[in-house]
Design a protein that fits this description.
The protein is built from 10 helices and 10 strands. The protein is of the alpha+beta class. The strands form 3 sheets. A 6-stranded mixed sheet has the order 1-5-6-4-2-3, with helices on one face. The longest helix is centred in the N-terminal third of the chain and has 23 residues.
């Protein structure tokens, strides 16, 4: 089967957008109590900004989408907030323009392009909405802002506090992760709470990792399977925000705490925090994808990634889908595309190994 431009599940303009950040609230909550005043104050400012944007997202009316581009190439605009909290900021680079002196602006521009390339070249999808949506980003948001987010319309990057987090344009998978929230917004519209919210987060980790792997042309056995590698400051004892290979091992630090992600349903965290643990329990479907992709070998964006993309864009996937429903959707997608065989077996085994099925 040839890659499709987008599945029948693509929704009407805007979709169900979440305010989705790469750094989970529970991490910033801990940093907000740190003994180091610089770390504590930056975390508290970041939490306050996140709360404001989250409330604004809930109250905002669904806006009409901007005019679509041709769809076969990205249409990127990068703006600079100048360390203020005003969006969108001053335009510093447009599609086709030469690189500028600001490394953050160039990394954002390249990351938007790398994400567009994966979806267009591998899955036949024309931008994140399937119809050529222009890709916008703002860099240098706020002062020491410890996050990056997708607000339903654009990507926004903080510079980090320099003590715990660096510049949020540094990890390519962070950009792919946040833009994939846009893809989910325009396809399955997965509700941002509980297991459907954890799936929403997991899909962003999956395709964020695939954006990086595709850009680097890394096979599954050579990929690091880390989300946010290079984001943590040197003083932090950790390698990334999350590990798909080994959830729960990305960091273990006196200030940052210990990575709380479970790898299997045995460790599932039942909580009201973080919209029902969406950034924590996402480790379970993350690990299922890792197991399926490495069992199949080769390039993870091909067979395993294609199956996950087919499931995400399936018209039968409900917004309130839980882990079991998505597992069933991926097995069905594997059988529909590849028949009964190695692909379907690897996908089914991955979900069984993490305890979602079987």
């Amino acid at each position: 089967m040839e890659p499709t431009a987008h599945g029948a599940a693509d929704r009407t303009p805007g979709g169900r957008a979440c305010f989705c950040t790469i750094v989970p609230p529970h991490v910033l909550d801990r940093l907000a109590e740190a003994g180091d005043a610089a770390v504590r104050d930056a975390a508290r400012r970041s939490l306050a900004l996140d709360a404001r944007h989250r409330e604004n997202r809930v109250l905002a009316r669904r806006a009409a989408p901007p005019p679509a581009a041709a769809g076969d190439r990205p249409e990127r605009t990068v703006r600079d907030a100048g360390h203020t909290e005003h969006l969108p900021g001053r335009t510093v680079r447009r599609e086709g323009g030469a690189a500028v002196a600001d490394g953050s602006a160039n990394r954002a521009y390249d990351g938007l392009g790398a994400t567009f390339a994966l979806y267009r070249e591998v899955y036949g999808r024309r931008s994140i909405d399937g119809a050529g949506l222009p890709l916008d980003a703002t860099v240098h948001y706020g002062r020491d802002y410890d996050n990056a987010f997708w607000d339903g319309e654009r990507m926004v990057f903080g510079d980090g506090d320099g003590e715990v987090f660096g510049d949020f344009t540094l990890p390519l998978d962070v950009i792919g992760h946040e833009l994939t929230h846009g893809v989910t917004q325009y396809t399955a519209e997965l509700e941002y709470r509980g297991q459907s919210g954890a799936l929403n987060e997991s899909l962003s980790d999956v395709f964020g990792s695939l954006v990086k792997q595709y850009a680097l042309q890394q096979t599954a056995d050579r990929a690091d399977w880390l989300i946010g590698a290079g984001l943590l400051a040197p003083r932090v004892h950790g390698v990334a925000l999350r590990s798909m290979r080994a959830p729960g091992t990305a960091y273990d630090d006196e200030v940052l705490g210990k990575d709380p992600q479970p790898a299997t349903m045995d460790g599932y965290v039942d909580t009201r925090d973080d919209d029902g643990g969406v950034h924590i329990n996402s480790g379970i479907p993350n690990h299922a994808f890792y197991l399926a992709a490495t069992a199949l070998g080769g390039n993870a964006w091909e067979r395993a990634g294609q199956v996950w993309y087919d499931a995400l864009t399936s018209p039968g996937l409900r917004p309130d889908a839980d882990f079991a429903a998505f597992a069933a959707a991926t097995v069905e997608a594997a059988r529909a595309r590849y028949g009964e065989g190695r692909e379907a077996d690897a996908v089914a085994k991955g979900w069984a190994q993490v305890g979602v099925t079987g």
